[in-house]
Specification:
The protein is α+β, with helices and mostly antiparallel strands. It has two domains: 131 residues, Sandwich (Jelly Rolls); 58 residues, no CATH class. The strands form two sheets. The protein has a three-stranded antiparallel β-sheet, with no helix packed on it. The chain has a two-stranded antiparallel ribbon with strand order 1-5. The chain is globular, with a radius of gyration of 21 Å.
Length: 192
């Protein structure tokens, strides 16, 4: 978070942000950063374990049906980013599916790492600028590849339809580099 723009003279907005952070289930230390240290909060994140993705997807489809919405086959309630899990929905998700995430308030200067495939949502508290970078670690290549396969089934007009991570290219270049290093050190590897 490289910038948080807080309007001057709007005390009521500060109270609204405090309420949003409290309703977002932020921990006590986070609350102190805002109320006592007077740090600038930019965004409230809710991050869930990747293993809970299917449960969250099922829950969102269930809620959509209850509200009379359709669930087209080529759409996905997570990738469509059409839902925000507010406090009542987060509570219901926990009660009905046993899924609970982590609430993180990102203050000016903070970095938030999101594990591969972890469903997440963000609520901007003020005007802010965030710098985002995708990173594929070797440990999560399999999961990233699985995600790109999920994206293939979205509609052709969906913004996530294409493989933005280009996981196949990452795998190709990682293997190419490893083979190159092995070949360059081939003579030293064959010595007893």
């Amino acid at each position: 978070m490289v910038y948080v723009g807080i309007p001057k003279g709007q005390a009521d907005q500060e109270e609204e942000v405090l309420k949003t952070i409290q309703d977002g289930d932020a921990d006590e230390l986070t609350m102190k950063r805002f109320t006592e240290s007077r740090e600038k909060p930019g965004a409230l994140w809710h991050i869930y374990a990747a293993k809970d993705t299917e449960k969250i997807r099922e829950f969102l489809k269930k809620v959509a049906e209850e509200q009379g919405q359709e669930n087209p086959v080529d759409h996905d309630p997570i990738h469509d980013q059409s839902w925000y899990l507010d406090r009542p929905l987060r509570k219901r998700l926990h009660q009905e599916y046993g899924v609970q995430g982590w609430a993180i308030v990102q203050f000016l200067g903070d970095v938030v790492f999101i594990p591969a495939g972890a469903p997440h949502q963000v609520h901007n508290l003020y005007s802010c600028i965030k710098v985002a970078e995708d990173f594929v670690s070797p440990e999560h290549v399999k999961h990233c590849f699985w995600l790109t396969q999920e994206f293939r089934y979205l509609s052709h007009t969906h913004t996530n339809h294409e493989d933005k991570l280009q996981v196949k290219n990452v795998i190709y270049h990682a293997v190419k580099d490893a083979v190159g290093i092995l070949k360059a050190n081939e003579s030293s590897l064959s010595r007893p």
